[in-house]
Amino acid sequence: MTIRKEFDQGLAELDDLIVDMGKRVEVALGDAMKALQKLDTAEAKRIIAEDTQLNRLEEHIFDIGSRLIATQQPVAKDLRRILVAFKIASDLERMGDLSVDVAKVVLRLDGQTLIKPLIDLPRMGEICQAMIYESIQSFVQENVDLAYKMAKDDDLVDALYSQIIRELFALMMEQPQTIAQANQLSFVGRYIERIADHATNIGESVVYLVTGTRPDLNS
Question: What is the C-alpha to C-alpha distance for residues 66 and 75, in angstroms, rounded to an integer?
Fold first, then answer.
């Protein structure tokens, strides 16, 4: 096997692992939001337990990338691709942690009834799920236009988050007995907003991979 062929196979394995992580995070977020809507504690516990799989995938990505750097001594774009894979894996692992944080809110609300129908929070979650998928596709395809789309989607998530906070604050003022749960729901909004930020980070990494310059898409 030629050195280049071996290196290309290593890069392809990194791509596959990144795609796998992305799918798992996308599913974890969706499942966590469904668990919240139903206050399904059994589902929340399952999501929390499965988070270790993401940690193992991140470690595998670092192991493969480190081996490629040590044995192949890549330069220029080849090196950037490995470094970007490291950064994306880190962002995805953090997204997984934030999805677990949503699941933990479900456990804290065990035995309660939701103080209001959840409309905007699930909408935020849906946008973020699409962002996760598209950010990974932008990496695999080296699609800069798709990477830049993350900034626009992040603005939508930020707007929904601001609206949710305003509504929850008004509810707490009118009905003080809702304060505890409203605070927990505001935490969920913050977790999802942070997931969108990490998806935007992936977009920045893709632009860096393709152009060699990292933009600020989170501004």
Answer: 14
Rounded distance between C-alpha atoms, residue 149 and residue 133, angstroms = 12
- For the stretch 108-112, contacts whose Cβ atoms lie closer than 8 Å and that sit 24 or more positions apart, written own/partner, are 108/184, 109/36, 109/39, 109/181, 109/184, 110/39, 110/41, 112/39, 112/181
Q: Which residues contact 131 (CB under 8 A, 6 or more apart)?
A: 150, 153, 154, 157, 195, 196, 199, 200
Which residue intervals of the chain are DSSP H helices?
A: 3-38, 41-49, 51-72, 76-108, 120-141, 144-174, 179-211
| 50: DSSP letter | T
| Interval 45-69: pLDDT, tens | 999 999 999 999 999 999 999 999 9
CA–CA dist 190, 77 (Å, integer):
35
State pTM to two decimals. Answer: 0.95
The 10 Å Cβ neighbour count of residue 146 is 17
